[in-house]
Amino acid sequence: MSNTSDELTLIVEFSDGLDTLIKDDLLKKVDGRLQATLTLASEHAGRPTSIRDLIEYIRDNCIKRNPELFYMENGVRPGILVLINDVDWELTDDGVD
User: Fold this and answer.
1) Which residues are bridge partners to 28 per DSSP?
2) How far apart are CA 16 and CA 59, in angstroms?
3) What single DSSP character describes residue 77?
4) 65 DSSP 8-state letter
5) Beta-strand pair 7-14/87-88
């Protein structure tokens, strides 16, 4: 969902223990699932915001402790599955290096 042409508002769901790394004040329970509503700029470094930008935003602004459990080198740690509308993000154009 988009607020304005300059912002993106996204609902991000955290499960299977990842929610324990996220700042408590960002999380709310909706239908038994822990979610955070995040607002990002629609552009980053002169290009449209990508999932990679979202992951870096979560690392820098949402993780309360042990960011290395979420992020390493240039992406999420192995074993963390990132889904966009129930599809693995690495199968989308944005997931390709």
Assistant:
1) 35
2) 17
3) P
4) S
5) unpaired
Q: What is the largest CA-CA distance in the chain?
A: 38
Enter the pTM of the model.
Answer: 0.82
Structure token digits, residue 11: 């609902």
Confirm if 68 and 80 have CB atoms less than 8 A apart: no
C-alpha–C-alpha distance, residues 1 and 21, integer Å: 25
Per-residue pLDDT tens digits for 75-93: 899 989 888 888 888 887 6
Predicted confidence (pLDDT) at residue 3 exceeds the cutoff of 70: no
Closest-CA residue to 61 (of 26, 85, 20, 28): 26
State residue 57's pLDDT score: 94
pLDDT in the model for residue 93: 66
Q: How far is residue 49 CA from its own chain's centroid? A: 12
Half-sphere exposure of 90 (CA within 13 A, CB side): 7
| Cα four-point dihedral sign 24, 58, 38, 83 | negative
Q: How many CB atoms sit inside 10 A of residue 3's CB?
A: 10
